[in-house]
Amino acid sequence: MATNYYLFIDKFIVPCDIEAAYHYIRQIEEYPRWWGKVYKKIVKLKDAPPDTPGAKYKITVGGFLPYTLTIENEVRHIDKPKLIRFFSFLLKPLFRANHHYCVVKAKEGIEKDLAIKSRLSASL
Predict the structure, then answer these.
(1) Residue 5 is part of which domain span?
(2) What is the DSSP string of 75-113?
(3) What residues contact residue 57 under an 8 Å CB cut-off, 6+ apart?
(4) In DSSP terms, which residues pair with 38 in a beta bridge?
(5) Same domain? 72 vs 91
(6) In Å, what is the CA distance from 102 to each residue of 61, 83, 91, 108?
(7) Which of 8, 50, 56, 87 is deepest in the core (most CB within 10 A)?
(8) pLDDT in single tens digits along all 124 residues of the chain
């Protein structure tokens, strides 16, 4: 992975129901109102009806460091609040077990692949 590649995962915990949170997230043009000075400028490049993919924005953001970033943001998928979220307290252990299973299978696959490569290298 390149040293200039960044991935930031943010989690907001706020005192509201999921419908209210969804209302905030889906209204990109309103971000400057509640993000404050972080969102410098938002320009709509392509319009789309509410709750459908296709909208495109050019967004300029900045923090306390002396630079800004301009990002093109296109809505490709709308993940509306789903019924499964209401039952997540029951399903989390199942999802955790499924994730663990996948990680174990990936580890086994990597180990097998490395063993094959090691044998091939040794035979050369």
Answers:
(1) 1-78
(2) --------HHHHTHHHHHHHHHHHHHHHHHHHHHHHHHH
(3) 28, 29, 42, 43, 44, 45, 72, 73, 74
(4) none
(5) no
(6) 37, 24, 17, 10
(7) 56
(8) 566 777 777 787 888 888 888 888 888 888 888 888 888 999 999 988 867 889 999 999 999 889 999 999 888 888 777 766 667 777 778 878 888 887 888 788 888 888 887 887 787 7
Could you tell me the two tokens for 84? 């499964």
* 81 in Cβ contact with 22 (< 8 Å): yes
User: Do 5 and 42 sit in the same domain of this protein?
Assistant: yes
DSSP 8-state class, residue 65: S
Contact 12, 20 (CB under 8 A): no
Q: Are 48 and 104 in a shared domain?
A: no
pTM over 0.70: no
